[in-house]
Design a protein that fits this description.
single chain; alpha+beta; Structural Genomics Hypothetical 15.5 Kd Protein In mrcA-pckA Intergenic Region, Chain A; five-stranded antiparallel beta sheet; two-stranded antiparallel ribbon; 5 helices
């Protein structure tokens, strides 16, 4: 294989528009949130080639991509989609609703003001964010 057949994983993630910056891509790779063919990646310089399967953990989601090509630049989204095939598992309807609810703040009646400390703790307990009491 030639050097053009391989590419650093941080560059590929950036070119494929998985993350907004190359430094964020490097943090993903060094943080152990990326796997190449089921092997955990610990360096941003890990090479990726056509045919590899990448598993990326990003914002409570698991993304699975099959590498179709290596990129030359960070182009528009249409160009980035040509670099991979998305083989991510589809979330079940219960999971997607639960994940969306966890991302959104709780709804409050208009004009009721800010939540009190007691109300905040109750919400945290409902979401299992608080102490395990």
């Amino acid at each position: 294989m030639t050097a053009s057949d391989r590419q650093r994983i941080d560059k590929w993630l950036f070119f494929a528009r998985v993350v907004k910056s190359r430094s964020l891509a490097a943090k993903l790779a060094t943080g152990g949130r990326v796997r190449v063919n089921r092997d955990k990646v610990d360096q941003a310089s890990h090479p990726v080639k056509v045919g590899d399967v990448l598993t990326v953990t990003l914002d409570r989601r698991i993304l699975v991509y099959r590498v179709l090509a290596t990129g030359h630049r960070r182009g528009p989204a249409e160009e980035a989609r040509l670099l991979y095939e998305d083989v991510s598992p589809q979330p079940s309807p219960g999971e997607s609703g639960q994940a969306r609810g966890a991302e959104l703040p709780p709804m409050r009646d208009s004009g009721s003001g800010r939540p009190t400390k007691r109300e905040r703790r109750q919400v945290d307990r409902l979401r299992d964010w608080g102490d395990p009491e």
